[in-house]
Please model this.
Amino acid sequence: MDEFIYNLFLKSRGGLALLGVLRYRLTGIEVDQAGDDNIFSLPALRQAHANQQQQETIEALVVRAEGSITIPALTGSRAIPVADVAFFIQMGPPIVTRLFSADSTVLMCFNQVNNQQIGGGLLWGPTTTSFALLGRRQMLPA
Model:
């Protein structure tokens, strides 16, 4: 699937403002309780959404997400790998995406404001400095 790239603006409670870049991609359907480990492609995900419109109940999809975040003032030029899940309900973008690093340096949670912007929060490092997060999607030429 395509990679999503966002230019980030982070602001702490104390007024510290930082810039960064988030890159991530949705890699497939999360393994469920029954042990089904099929990985769905984007067309299959669209078909699942189309099928849900015909149902009386709403089902949620949990999709794996993985990528990296770079905040030059905190990470230098090094990208911190992050991974976790995105939650989808019916049609449209994920209602919430949660990403964290294996070493617990980064914990972030955001949702789509519209097709081009995200908003949420980020906790950084062992001191858990909190930041409000706004992101604007970077569109790359084809």
In short: Confidence is low (pLDDT under 50) at residues 31-41. The beta strands are 3-12, 17-29, 60-70, 80-89, 96-100, 106-112, 117-124, 129-137.
